[in-house]
Predict the structure.
Amino acid sequence: MTDKKIFGVTALFNEPNAIISAARKVADAGFTKWDVNSPYPIHGIDKAMKMKPSKLGIVTLIFGLSGAVLALILMYWTMSVDYPMIIGGKPYFSLPAFIPVTFEVTVIMATLSTVVAMFAFFFGLPRNSHALHDTDYMKKVSRDHYGIVIEAIDPKFDEMATLQLLKDLKPITTEIIYHPEKENYPIFEPRFIALLVGVAVVVSIGTYLMLNKLVYIVPFDWMEKQAKVIPQSGSEFFADGRGMRLPVKGTVAKGFIPYPFEGETNPKEVLSNPYFPTKENLELGQRKYLTYCSPCHGNYGDGDSRLAGQFPNPPTLHSDRGRNFSDGMIYHIITVGQNVMPSYASQVTRDERWAIVNYIRALQRAKNATDADLKLVKAE
Amino acid sequence: MSTDYSVEAPVVAGRLTIAQIEELVAKPMDTKPDKKFYLALTISGSALLIGAVCLLYTFYYGIGMWGNNQPVGWGFGIVNFVFWVGIGHAGTLISAILFLLRQKWRTGIARFAEAMTIFAVMCAGIFPIIHTGRPWLAGYLTPYPNQHGLWVNFTSPLVWDVFAVSVYFTVSLVFWYTGLIPDFATLRDRTTSKIKKTIYSIFSLGWRHSSRHWLHYEKAYVILAGFATPLVLSVHTIVSFDFAVSIMPGWHTTIFPPYFVAGAIFSGFAMVVTVLVFVRKIFDLQNIITIDHLEKMNKVILATGMMVGYAYSMEFFIAWYSGVQFEQFAFLNRMLGPYAWAYWTMVSCNVIFPQFFWFKKIRRSIPAMIVIVLFVNVGMWFERFVIVVTSLHRDFLPSSWGMFTPTLYDFGILLGSFGLFFTLVILFTKALPVVSIAEVKAVADGAQPTHHRGEHHD
Amino acid sequence: MHNNEFKYQRKDLPSSISKIGMTLLVVGIVLGVAAFFVDHTRAVYNYLIAFTFMISIGVGALFLISLEYIVGADWSVPIRRVVEFFAAIIPLLALLVIPLLLNVGELFHWSHADAVAEDKFLTGKAPYLNVTFFIIRVFVLIGLWSLFYFFFIRNSKKQDTTKDQKLTTINIRLSAIFIPVFAITLTIAAVDWLMSIEPHWFSTIIGVYFFAGTVIAALAAVTLATVLLKENGYLHPAMTNDHLYSLGALLFAFVNFWGYIAFSQYMLIWYADLPEETFWFMQKWEGSWAIFSIGLIIIKFLVPYIVLVSQPAKMDPKKLKFISVWLLFAHLYDLFWFVMPEMEELSGGYSFSWIDLVFPIAAVGLIILVFNMKAKKDNLIPIGDPKLQRGLDFHL
């Protein structure tokens, strides 16, 4: 019995007035490591025990404010910066519409932080291994008694004197509490470790299945998988096995006029550029050139695109031959194609083709600029 | 009629001692459930099952199983959602607002009402998710950096709903659990069963009833109540925004936020009274949940019923006063159109029947109050039905008018939500203390020191 | 139980109070009359603001009294007389309204028959918005308020001598009837006096909006008077700062409530963006009115919120004195923001005039004088109220 370590001494009362006056006396005696236990909060015990008001509000304030700020930043960033969209004619950053979410995030941050901070940091819970647990004292104060406990770690603690002090308060009983000889909940118990390992394995397998299998399961897919032709895929319905069908021969797409010079090699005599290279026209030409021509011919017509080396190299547009082509010839090549180059008639409209021609002319002139041209540019 | 106003009426009747209170509340957990319990569970479980089957059909064949159509795209799904969120509001009102107003009578009913909040919000949360048709994709409702590079639309009231309802559920749960911790500790210290003791120990977190803890605990309770109060207002306000930010006649009206909140409290209190009347009888809690408490709740029902009535008449008056013909038509159509029966059911259940609570005798008569609160429950469900259906079915263009007819599946799912709610309530009564032991002990006779009250005298 | 029974000695308020009240009132009236000659329309608009402010103080106080009875509050019993004295302004409203009724034409566009005939919306509203019905409503409202005021006060005063508990019961029942009446009458007042200045605009929440401001104003007045009286020893010595806490907490709650209602109204109109509603807020965004609109959020919500949010602040007499004066000003400011942009000359932006200052001065002077007069006649503490001791024992 001698190696039992003392935790503290306790006294029990069964009347709220008695506990208040007892607490006042213990507080006056100058103890610091002591406590009053009661089944519910007793009015006025904080003053009797000389406790300072709770500082919990600071946690709430800090986390509540940061919740508000974070929510606003998130909404600002997603709605005005990362993916701005006009919705209902409202500005990207519509403060009134952001108030509800800001408020909710503030509330959740403030309340959760308060509760977690209180239990985990203010109280040091969960803790089921405290010496007071499973004592008669605890069972009584859990029900309808009020108790005082003075802990042995208090600098003023002296087993006999402190016990006497408590006895002088006229409690119904006093008790000396010892630390349990062996830990109630030892961490290195095999069963506990087995439990931890088991939980870890189950969680890992669960997470793996969830992320790699479960999220890809479509519960009911018959609306998605219907008997219909899916673009770019085959079909057994047609003899040639192709899902996508070619238009009937002689079909003319809306807005397109059939090109009369197909098969000819040089229709330059009849084709002349109907557009002046105005700013708008050149900009249109640039857009279309960058979309349709640049993948092979390069952004500046040098034939240096990323396709170089994979096919017969796309030629530069700045060769003498290219520069000597008439506008009509370039137009013709875009329309019907040349060598490996396919026809672009279905992607680029007539007007756009002429705009591309103008743009190519501008590129060619820029590559071979004369002094007079440079002066003009500098003058601007 | 001789009330003595100079003394406070006791909160706990029958002069129960602190230990007796504990025995009374802990009894259902110490005894094995009887036949009646299983009978009740069977009934509610069957309702739940019917709902589950109807829901499975809906998932398999799609929302086309419901009565929703063009122009009534929001049918029972939204009606039930608003109804259940409303039911939830009473719990937070009792646990937070009445706490801040220092109404001690709340202690006896707070735990139960909070539990009902949580269960009701669970029922409510199901509806918008199943209404999407593909509930397994509900994850996209949360703003996370997904593979599409898309974010949720934070200016949409439907996204506010996601935030409001999930925050409301979480905070209610935390509030409820915080209140339960001291009770878990009490149960831990009184039980003799080893399994129960382990469970209670885990959930009590090792609470020691320490006064140094109580100090912070009470502060935290005030803070939580302080946040829960505007939160509960915000939740139904945001639900009302779902309707009111639109330009639909009968939906777009500025009184919607406070009107919805009042209606929510109204329906919630009615549901709490409905359930409590039986619970106090079955578990012998007449001394803790006294007839005085029920009377006070009935007074709140009367008051909020009149607030709802005020909102009905204000809407009606301003619809006329505005001179906007669509608004005027919307309200005339409610009263005289094809859904007039629903409108008049709503008015009579919500405004007329609660007027009986002006009489003290009726407020204190259990059978009378059961009848009236049931009417209120029905009336508040119809209020949401009237708002959703009558506004949508005839809006601006007569060419786009239509009618809404609910299907069996609609009713099945509604029944299922009641089944879920009552199943959870019934399980709760056996699993956890239905009354907060610590809080009721604190307001019992002689629980508090006498000389605190008159500190200035010594 | 209570050995040292408190013997109440009636004390008159210092004569300086009546001097201050009288000075403010006289200065206000002289300048006010002058204002009517200088700029008639502006004077009428300002008079309306002062008038609705007095409605707020008087009827708001009456509401606080009935609230105490209906919820069975005990902490407020020791200060109920303070509230009652503020309600004493109610019967005077019948006189104060007369200058407004003489100038209905200046204030209300709908009172002109030719304007109504041209405008189909006004024609539609004519069954409600017409001068005869308007005047009938005004006197019915003031009559109802005065009636309830009279009964409440009579019972409360009678209890001082008879100590009859039945009087409390009667007043509780009276409150139960008064509160619905109050809701309807205050809404009518808000629609008639505030909303119909711009007869095309409509908002269903207007009654609740005015209610929130009204309660803030009445509570602020009560808080200010309570703190001042308590500091100078006119109230029961057993009253503690815990009583002030209740007032501070209520103020805080209603500041939040006002913010909630004001936000809801703005938000819904802003979001739906219907021209028949938004034009009213656009008027309040014209020119310098934009500054007033932003100022409203700061003055009536942000500042009081920040001052009152902490628990100790709600029971600190100094802070409460400051914030109740601030909130009284804020309510005036709110009414000013609500009413003045509707004046045609000010529709493009605000320009200062001394006329805007004089009517609140007169109103404050009048309220002080009436308060002082009642304090001379009646006990400052309801000594016969059965709940008085409970109220004094109140602790957090």
Q: What stands out?
A: Chain B touches chain C through 44 residues (CB under 8 Å).
